[in-house]
Amino acid sequence: MPFNPGRLILARRRRAMTQTRLATECDIDARNVRRYEAGDASPSEETLTAIAGALKFPIAFFFGDAPAVLPPAAASFRSMSTMTGIQAECALSAGALAVAVSDYLNQHLTLPVSDLPDLRGTEPEQAAKELRSAWGLGNKPLPNLVHLLEVHGVRVFSLVDDCKAVDAFCITHNDTPFVFLNTGKSAEHSRFDAAHELGHLVLGHARESTGERLGRDIEREAHRFAAAFLMPREDVLARAPKSINTESIVQAKRRWGVSAVALARRLYALGLVREWHYKQLCIEMSRRGYRTAEPDPGTREQSQLLKKGFELLKGQGIGRDDVARALSIELHDLECLVFGLVMVPVSGEGHGTRRGRAALTIVKGS
Questions:
Q1: What CA–CA distance (Å, rounded) separates 184 from 175?
Q2: Are strands 176-181 and 155-158 parallel, antiparallel or unpaired?
Q3: Most exposed of 35, 44, 91, 227 (fewest Cβ within 10 Å)?
Q4: Whole-angstrom distance, CA of residue 152 vs CA of residue 358
Q5: 176-181 vs 168-173, strand pairing mode
Q6: Are the C-beta atoms of 248 and 285 separated by less than 8 Å?
Q7: Residue 14: phi, psi to the nearest 5?
Q8: What is the mean pLDDT of residues 113-137?
Q9: Is 362 helix (H, G, I), strand (E, B) or coil?
């Protein structure tokens, strides 16, 4: 295959490099980098070797098919006003690599197909109730939200180390929904992020371009959806602490797998605490440092679908290094996207859905 300029763009953005910095790293003229990316010229063997070394991608990567292009308007980024263009490009490029990993798995395995309902125009709390009903979840707490998303066809990947400025984001690519989570946050924060991104998906935010003017309203909608989906009104009203204070909230939060701050906010939204009381709770939690260090932390959710998928591939003699080689990426890049493939069940009182096993099978002839 000929040199693919789109892959150079992806690799450069994945490493959060500008064209000028890449040129400096490779001791070449920045104008040449622009020409390579525009498809007006191809680098010499010597120059391509320098570029591959600077970007830490195998040379073969630059000769593959055109990569997935994920425009910023297709992603549910938060705080676009404070996120730099480089940070957004880095996250989207990591997303494009995740799409390639997903495509590879689809070629070798039968993965769950998305059954997300289209709830555009539905009020967030009602949308959460309708989704729970559609998935047969009732009002019980959800023990593993990542696994639940995977069962219903959402591909969940972790954000790589150099995308830590991004909390989470989601996209829909070729009718397949993707959620990317920042694993540097607390387990509770990451779990709420997953529900937040699910809200973007079912409410249609990740399918349409939105202007900055609507950004805050959309984020509030996704936040309200996440709170209602993780902490159903009926269950919270039935199981809320009788005496609501910081200690009782910390004890109760484990039932729903949320942060103390998120539960306090939900109790206030449901009218179980008055505004003055809620503000005092927030002040006390901030004083104790609960906004940055979660008390009595839960266990982080991780991908079960990816773990099972790679186990099936291993049974066919295909290891992780083989997958990375087939995609012409470094093994480290693959492992950053798939949570290190360590499966740890999330503690919790609920039992979730009994549908909850992702049906993975080997594709015949693969």
A1: 28
A2: parallel
A3: 44
A4: 8
A5: antiparallel
A6: no
A7: -60, -35
A8: 96
A9: strand
- CA 25 distance to own-chain centroid: 31
- Kind and range of the H or E run holding 158: strand 155-158
Biggest CA-to-CA distance, the chain: 72
Alpha helices in the chain, H assignment, sequence order: 5-14, 19-26, 30-38, 45-55, 85-108, 124-134, 145-151, 187-202, 212-230, 233-239, 246-256, 260-269, 275-287, 305-315, 320-327, 331-337
pTM: 0.89
Residue 69 in tokens: 């292009």
Strand-pair partners of 179: 156, 170
Contact 299, 257 (CB under 8 A): no
> DSSP per residue over 166-187, as a string?
--EEEEEETTEEEEEE-TTS-H
Calpha distance 64→305 (Å, rounded) = 27
Under 8 Å between Cβ of 179 and 168? yes
- Which candidate, 205, 186, 183, 209, places its Cα nearest to that of 196? 205
* pLDDT tens-place string over residues 271-292: 999 999 999 999 999 999 999 8
Residue with tokens 């996209």: 171
Asked if domains 1-67 and 68-227+301-366 share a fold, the reply is no
User: Is pLDDT at 80 greater than 80 in this prediction?
Assistant: no
Please say if the pLDDT value at position 96 is more than 60. yes
Considering the segment(s) 68-227+301-366 as one domain, its CATH architecture is Orthogonal Bundle (1.10)
Query: Domains of the chain: which residue ranges?
Result: 1-67, 68-227+301-366
What is d(CA 54, CA 90) in angstroms, rounded to the nearest whole number? 16
Q: Which two tokens stand for residue 133?
A: 């009903």
Edge-first strand listing for the sheet containing 168-173: 155-158, 176-181, 168-173
Residue 34 has which token pair? 């622009």
Helices 275-287 and 246-256 meet at what angle, rounded to 10?
Answer: 90
| CATH superfamily, domain at 1-67 | lambda repressor-like DNA-binding domains (1.10.260.40)
